[in-house]
């Protein structure tokens, strides 16, 4: 299994900022922690390993180039409520939805005792319809 993990934001886009905390730094740190814990035979590929700009198109190209079985993009959003939520593309394959259920359950199993609300599994097309070459699992 090939897992592409995308630490959200980076480079000139810090994401949400609060004092010295920058979303881009937090997502990169969390991505590294997850990558260290993924056991073989799974392989982890990062869309960025340092604080640099990576366009949305390049993130998609990385996932496609490595024939990813799973694409996981991490964010710490500052608006729109509190809690943890996970997304799949509206036309995601059943296997993708199954993986999301497993990951969502594992994350909420850790986060709920910490006082983080479960905002549920959701669907969204963050990439947009402008690029029909984007596979339906992305």
TrEMBL record:
One of the record's GO molecular function terms: N-acetylmuramoyl-L-alanine amidase activity
Keyword Hydrolase: yes
Keywords of this entry: Hydrolase
SUPFAM superfamilies to which the protein is assigned, alphabetical: Zn-dependent exopeptidases
Domain of life: Bacteria
Pfam families according to UniProt: Amidase_3
Domain MurNAc-LAA, residue spans: 3-128
Transmembrane regions: none
GO biological process: peptidoglycan catabolic process
One cellular component (GO) term of this entry: outer membrane-bounded periplasmic space
Annotated protein name in UniProt: Cell wall hydrolase/autolysin
Biological source species: Ammonifex degensii (strain DSM 10501 / KC4)
Lineage per the UniProt record: Bacteria, Bacillati, Bacillota, Clostridia, Thermoanaerobacterales
């Amino acid at each position: 299994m090939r897992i592409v993990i995308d630490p959200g934001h980076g480079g000139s886009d810090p994401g949400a900022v609060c004092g010295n905390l920058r979303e881009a730094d937090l997502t990169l740190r969390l991505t590294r922690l997850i990558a260290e814990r993924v056991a073989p035979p799974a392989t982890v590929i990062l869309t960025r390993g340092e604080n640099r700009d990576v366009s949305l198109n390049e993130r998609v190209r990385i996932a496609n180039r490595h024939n990813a079985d799973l694409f996981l993009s991490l964010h710490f959003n500052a608006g729109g409520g509190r809690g943890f939520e996970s997304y799949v593309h509206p036309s995601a394959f059943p296997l993708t939805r199954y993986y999301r259920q497993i990951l969502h359950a594992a994350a909420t199993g850790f986060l709920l005792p910490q006082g983080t609300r479960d905002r549920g599994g959701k669907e969204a097309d963050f990439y947009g319809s402008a690029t029909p070459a984007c596979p339906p699992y992305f």
